[in-house]
Amino acid sequence: MSIVYDRQENLLTLTTENTGYQMCIDELGILRHLHYGSRTGAQDMSYQIIDFDYAFSGNPIQYRRERNFSLDILPQEYTSFGVGDFRLNSVAVINADGSRAAQFHYVSHEIRKGKYAIPELPASYDNGDEAETLIVTLRDEVTGLTVKLHYGVFEKLDIITRYAEICNDGKAPVTLEKAASLCLDLPHGNWDLMHFWGKHAMERQPERQPIGHCITTVGSTRGTSSHQQNPFIIVCDHEATEDHGDCYGMMLAYSGGFKAELENSQINSVRAVMGIDDTYFSWKLEPGQSFHTPEVILSFADGLTALSHNYHHFIRHNVCRGKHHLEKRPVLINNWEATYFDLNEDKMYALAKEAAALGIDQFVLDDGWFGARYDDNAGLGDWFVNYDKLPNGLDSLIEKINGLGMKFGIWVEPEMVNEDSDLYRAHPDWALSAPDRTPTFGRNQLVLDMSNKDVVDYLYGCLSTLLKEHNIAYIKWDFNRSVCDVYSHALPADRQGEVSHRFVLGLYNLLDRLTTEFPDVLFEGCSGGGGRFDAGMLYYTPQIWLSDDTDAIERLIIQGGTSYGYPVSTMGAHVSAAPNHQTGRTTPINTRGIVAMSGAFGYELDLTKLPESDKEAIRIQIQRYHQDEVLIHQGSYYRLTDVTKGYYTAWQIVSEDKSKSLVNLVITSPQPNPEPLHIRFKGLDPNANYHIEESDKVISGAALMNGGYTYPVMHGDYPAMQLHLSVRS
Ligand code: GLA
Prior knowledge:
Helices cover 19% and strands 31% of the residues. By secondary structure, it is α+β, with helices and mostly antiparallel strands.
């Protein structure tokens, strides 16, 4: 049993293989947080909270306590608001009488088998007997506002999930101005924050900094989880390394704006609060109505690598769903960087023919096939074939491609509209725009109002028709701008603060209907590359185009940064042209292949223009990838170097039974007179002997991990090397 209630001490203890989480209900009914970290068993951890005089900080008189009681220093599970805890709050309300306060006390709790689901939102799932759920109910006695804190405990996986259901059980409406998914008071210590910042074509750059005595915020106000920040943060001990040290992961399964805040308080204790972005948020709850926050996925581990492994397994097995999430993915050719908008049937067929001859499984027709889409000024919203470019229609092209033995995939950007489109001309009020203001354009496009059910139903009609009428095996679902002018013409003035979240619910509703109705179709997420790379999207789309930057050297940081929280199977990665279109850099085809293979692999360049030597290299890459893909996607991933430092980057993948391993190395900044390049491998069986295919040497696992491996000198432009290890008996 992973959830235990100690009736005598009023303790609730959640236990996983290596971690423990404890809370208690104190004599005042406050749900105190006692512990999250390595296992501490059934021990009552409340001995850690000591009394001291905090009268100057606020000691609420209603508790009739002495000077040594203050909510302001008490670790709590979900904090009250406006009543004496001055740190980051979990919830903010405006009551019907205009007061801004809520004080939550324990009412009851319930332990259930299995994992909870969340209405209208993605939530991780249990594959049978993996999880238990704890629901703790708290209530504000004055207004009747009730909070049901949900905890999902995945014992074997070292994962605990949380979300809050906020119900108005009172008699008057209440407006929520903030509704966090998580409040976590961390133990005393010296903590660093790791977050993943970026911009378009430069996503998820890892950055680590000490948490100072101030509020640090990581978030997005862009309506998407964003290129600029990711809804995944790590709080780790200042001394923590890849291999050791206390590391907490907090990942929000949400694709809209979010906020993760950290406050190191006056008594040196850090509180983390994470949830929907509250900057423009408000949500009116009539009596009897409930609000559900998105889910936070928590993990604690010894070292960053172990933390990443917990998330990799969990995302693959308990977040991504459907027919494709654990299956081999097709190697694809995408026409975007080959032709951009300049596509037609002959060109596409020529590209597909070349791809088929090289062993590629699937052709993806990117932007430009529909409406008046000759550039990015027009066409979005009109999901009907452009007969000027494809005079014989989609089916003719699809049949020809299928005839080559390849599957066919297609690009869409459903949530967007161009002013120059039939859709906008018919329904200008379907675009988000504030009354009497000229809306802001991004990539010449406006954002559709996904909070409006009519819009979602219309898109469902277009996309389901597309999928029903054509033999389409794959959808690339794009979203190419940030959201502003957040105003819905379908909602009254006092509900406009709800639009951002309702937008995300509309998106999830559409994805849910389509993925349920078309289970055979593989959906890939995308948002100008990786601007919506999050566990919410991964619930519907088991892979996401990682970045519009396809430069192999830049990709090492983007893929490496993403790997802290997400497995390689989720990262769309393609070999593109040299010189690279984003950076102008030329890298060898071998290096480009090795980098892209650590992902959902494909090609995105004009194959018809390649020299025979590159085509031969691609043929070999694809064969190699097929030999290695199970290892790559199912193995344990190790970062052997810090992707932000040094003149080379190395990473390793080890099969579950440790019988095979792949070690990849890329020289990112070639050196004159290089010193010997020496790396210690990880995750191997110390007692086994490994044959290294490329050097034909046999070396023990212990030697490779403790002594290391010395590479031959590698000269030239960005050379790369793969080593294939297999156990020799
Ligand atoms: C975005 C995507 C690209 C491509 C273009 C098409 O930038 O990330 O891969 O699909 O849109 O307009």
